[in-house]
Amino acid sequence: MASTHTDLVSGLGSLGLTSGDVVFVHSSLSSFGHVEGGAETVVQAFLEVLGPEGTLAVPSFGKYFMEGPGQVWDRDRSPSLMGRISETVRTWPGARQSPHAVHPVSAVGGLAEDLTERHHLTDFAFDSPFARLLELDAWIVLLGVTYNSCTMIHVIEERTEIPWRGWVARSGTV
After folding, report:
1. How far apart are CA 51 and CA 38, in angstroms?
2. Per-residue b or e along 103-139, where b marks 16 or more CB atoms closer than 10 Å to that residue's CB
3. Mean pLDDT: which of 33-42, 74-83, 154-163 is highest?
4. Closest by alpha carbon to 107, among 98, 119, 95?
5. What are phi and psi of 12, to 5 degrees?
6. How many other CB atoms are there within 10 angstroms of residue 162's CB atom?
7. Would 55 disulfide with which of 22, 77, 120, 123, CB 3.0-4.6 Å?
8. Residue 135: strand, helix, or coil
9. Residue 48 backbone dihedrals phi, psi, to 5 degrees
10. Which secondary structure element, helix H or strand E, spans residue 123, and what is its range?
11. DSSP code per residue over 55-117
């Protein structure tokens, strides 16, 4: 049986999501089984539940600059490699994407600009979109992925200066 828009809205509501919430989603569309309308239906369901004041954010990472110099990242055109839902949010009308090529965040909704227009030095710094999500007490929603996929752990790692996290210089064209 396929999941519908109505099923998804009901399920998100039963989680406790309400209008005005800020949500950061890591996801795997294939974990849903068949969804009528695919990733677009999932994004529409989130936006309906969150309402115009709410914000839907996703990681929209690629492998830019991790495979050597000479790579090009275009904030408006380089695709997310984090799945269909992430790419759908990235390309949604009115969506914004943060300017950090290695770990960008894409967002739609009331606080999309606030989240994405931060010019942070490192991916998970105190002034990054990830830190702002914590300040906003955002929901962290993992749909069909394990906690190992949750990027927010890196904010804690950076803040506590864990020995295995360090600076890595990368080069490319933005």
Report:
1. 20
2. bbbbbbbbbbebbbebebebbbbeebbbbbbbebebb
3. 33-42
4. 95
5. -65, -40
6. 12
7. 22
8. helix
9. -65, -45
10. none
11. EEEEE----TTTS-TT-B--TTTSPPSS-HHHHHHHTSTT-EE-S-SSS-EEEEETTHHHHH-
> Measured between alpha carbons, how far is 132 from 47 in angstroms, rounded to an integer?
20
How many residues in total does the chain contain?
174
Which are the contacts of 9, defined by CB distance < 8 A and separation ≥ 6?
45, 48, 49
Cβ atoms within 10 Å, residue 172: 16
| Amino acid residing at 33 | G
Of the candidates 60, 45, 42, which has an alpha carbon nearest to the alpha carbon of residue 99? 60
For residue 122, what is the enclosing H or E element? none
Reported as a single tens digit per residue, the pLDDT across 93-113 is 999 998 887 788 999 999 999
In the chain, what are the helix, strand and coil shares in percent, each to the nearest 5? 35, 15, 50
- Going by pLDDT thresholds of 50, 70 and 90, the confidence category of residue 128 is confident
Q: What is the phi-psi region of residue 96: left when phi exceeds 0, alpha when psi lies from -120 to 50, beta otherwise? A: beta
Phi, psi of 72 (to 5 degrees): -125, 130
